[in-house]
TrEMBL record:
Molecular functions per Gene Ontology: 4-hydroxythreonine-4-phosphate dehydrogenase activity; cobalt ion binding; magnesium ion binding; NAD binding; zinc ion binding
Subunit structure and binding partners: Homodimer.
Family assignment from sequence similarity: Belongs to the PdxA family.
Protein encoded by which gene: pdxA
Pfam families on file: PdxA (PF04166)
Residues given in the record as a divalent metal cation binding sites: H164, H209, H264
InterPro entries in the cross-refs: PdxA, PdxA_fam
Protein name as it appears in the record: 4-hydroxythreonine-4-phosphate dehydrogenase
Species assigned in the record: Thalassotalea litorea
Presence of keyword Hydrolase: no
Pathway the protein takes part in: Cofactor biosynthesis; pyridoxine 5'-phosphate biosynthesis; pyridoxine 5'-phosphate from D-erythrose 4-phosphate: step 4/5
Residues annotated as binding substrate: H134, T135, K272, N281, R290
Keywords, alphabetical: Cobalt, Cytoplasm, Magnesium, Metal-binding, NAD, NADP, Oxidoreductase, Pyridoxine biosynthesis, Zinc
EC assignment: 1.1.1.262
One GO term (biological process): pyridoxine biosynthetic process
Amino acid sequence: MIAKIAITPGEPAGVGPDILVQLAQQDWSAQLIAIADPEMLKQRAAMLGLSLEIDIYDENQQATSHKAGRLTVKPVIIAEPCIPGELNPNNGAYVVETLRLACEGNMNGEFQAIVTGPVHKGLINKSGIPFSGHTEYFAQQANCSDVVMMLATEGLRVSLMTTHIPLAYVSKAITYDRVQKITRILDNDLKQKFGIESPKIYVCGLNPHAGEDGHLGREEIDVISPALENLRQEGIHLVGPLPADTIFQEKYLAKADAVMAMYHDQGLPVLKYKGFGASVNITLGLPFIRTSVDHGTAIELAGKSEVDCGSFRAALNHAIELVTNTN
Ligand SMILES: NC(=O)C1=CN([C@@H]2O[C@H](COP(=O)(O)OP(=O)(O)OC[C@H]3O[C@@H](n4cnc5c(N)ncnc54)[C@H](O)[C@@H]3O)[C@@H](O)[C@H]2O)C=CC1
Ligand SMILES: NCC(=O)COP(=O)(O)O
């Protein structure tokens, strides 16, 4: 069966559309369905000197694999014409509508995965729509109380205990309950989606030196260790909490199927240092497959043919692979 993959190019003034029209220049084994404004995509392709034929999506037609130089589009009309590199809050609702439709199509089985380009979280909020990230948005749309953000590159997977919240709220968000729920989702998806029979998860502490026996913070003693101990009783293979400044070394990584970081900027700088441009962001715990790029909107590069397509290509390949593995 040929999979239908919904693709949201993200912020129209950013590099998402540039990358999508470039990726459309090659054949793919799945049908790619861009949920976007077709005129905006045509204009971006023309700006980059690429030829692109648009086919308007017909849900009653059987899926056919993507052919180079064409793109199937489920149209969402943009509010105001897009100027690459110029953020326009009047187009914030358009961006969110593309995400809503992609989610709806996955929930009702029309599409088999979502691949998202980068959105500008600040612009969406400026447009009057509270938004902290795709991860949280899709969780809410799919009625999932907890999902996990995981980024993966060759030789390293990093998942996050907390996602897009201010640093000042992180300690309070790391509860006994949260540590258990998030770790169980990670363990389950490593088994189900990645085919790892008995995953080993290495867990970072929150505080310097994982709290130094309570002298530099008590979250490890009061919350993280007891929660991990309970999970070990359930049979989950966990190591830690280990100091975050030394966990990312080969001795541990060679054995780890994933590292769990306590917050966004504890884990992601390491991952991106290792594999920026070739990493994939995967949301675990959703009732559908969702992958994304490792980078943001890079608006200064929009419309200029200078963008690196590696992460978007990897996200698309990974989504197709996950669909194939789970069918
Ligand atoms: N998946 C998503 O929707 C993500 C969205 N963002 C959003 O993107 C916006 C901008 O965030 P920044 O922190 O500035 O990160 P950014 O990733 O947009 O840019 C950081 C640096 O990397 C470069 N860069 C990024 N992507 C590139 C590519 N494909 N090819 C070549 N160079 C590239 C940029 O030119 C810039 O120098 C924010 O609003 C943020 O919320 C950030 C990360 C992920
Ligand atoms: N740093 C990852 C990021 O900001 C992307 O998050 P999301 O929009 O995929 O939730």
